[in-house]
Amino acid sequence: MALRLRTEMPEINGVTEWVNQEVTKEELKGSPVLVHFWSISCHMCKESLPELNKMREEIPNLKLVGIHMPRSEKDTDVDAVKETIVKYELKHPQGIDNEHRVVDAFENEFVPAFYLFDANGLLRHRSAGEKALSMLKRPLERVLAETEA
Known about the structure:
Elements: E1 17-19, H1 25-28, E2 33-38, H2 43-58, E3 63-68, H3 78-87, E4 94-96, H4 101-105, E5 113-117, E6 123-128, H5 132-148
Parallel strand pairs: 2-3, 3-4
Antiparallel strand pairs: 1-4, 2-5, 5-6
């Protein structure tokens, strides 16, 4: 069962290792937040990473948090995940979630998956799969407009 809309953001606890910066739910309050789940073995995920970097640069008041979700034993190689983070220039916080603690807290099953929270920490949109990033555009515009108002 996926998180329901208007649900409060779960805690981001139990990450195996943080890259770039560790974040907590409390630190994210007051800004729109996009949590994206991805995996090094997911081709679609890698295709979406440059778009996320562009979003990070173009929307400075949107906080991005990546959660690497292993889909196989091979995906739990922390060094391989770190290499991918460097290769794709992911400069926003990246949680490596080898034990699926964050994955379980978000009730997430898919990669790529995107969870958009408003400045009050409430889930406003979630999408997963091939068209997930394009489905995010309108809800993101709405949440950003509310934040600026």
